[in-house]
Amino acid sequence: MSDYFNRVPDFQYANLLKNSSIGDKVLVKNLFRKAKLREDIFQNITFFEKYFIKGDERPDQIANKFYNDPNLDWLILLANNVLNYQTEWPMSARIYDEYILEKYGSYENASKVRFYESKRVFNSQNETVFPPGLKVEENFAVEFYDIDLDKPVRLTDVSYPVTNLVYEERLQEKRRSIYILKPLYISIAIEDLSDILPYKKGSTEFISKTLKDTETMIS
After folding, report:
1. Residues 6+ apart with CB under 8 A from 6
2. Contact at 8 Å (CB) between 210 and 200?
3. Which of 40, 51, 96, 116 makes the best surface tag, with the fewest CB within 10 Å?
4. How buried is 105 (Cβ within 10 angstroms: 0-12 exposed, 13-18 middle, 19+ buried)?
5. Tens of pLDDT along 108-118?
6. What angle (nearest 5°) sits at the alpha carbon of residue 104, between those of residues 102 and 108?
């Protein structure tokens, strides 16, 4: 991420340390100023290729694999609109284990049923009469009229339990499916970054394209 943060502009912030003098200021990175991919790129699937994160792969490792440059890890995150790496990227096995125990208190609690989901239900002609994956009650049943049998049918045992652990594992797996901006378009993304992040003239706080001044009000 060093390449990205080197491009993020700074602002002068009042130094609030006890030993500082009145008027002393420090430089702080303006993390509220974020880059983004252009909509015409972000919304066009042909600019990307799908990738499934393997094991404990990090964004810098994937950037190195596709772009031969680990410093383009910010582009991997940007392409997937990942704002918080800690919560929106697949956790390592160790961190995931710690997360489960912290959230649920024990593996026993993690193994408890969170909700029930429907199974796919077919009629006698092998046609779907109820879709799978919908949240339902534990004793959910499906009733329909089977034309082939010429009678109403009521089916039970058409739901299954989803535990907390399965739910969390699904989230992990979902995060593993990402999009990679094709190397052909890297230069466009970097050009956009150079245009979006710098400050523009027009305010009294403007000092340069990479620096603004701020005033801290202390009540």
Report:
1. none
2. no
3. 40
4. exposed
5. 999 999 999 99
6. 120
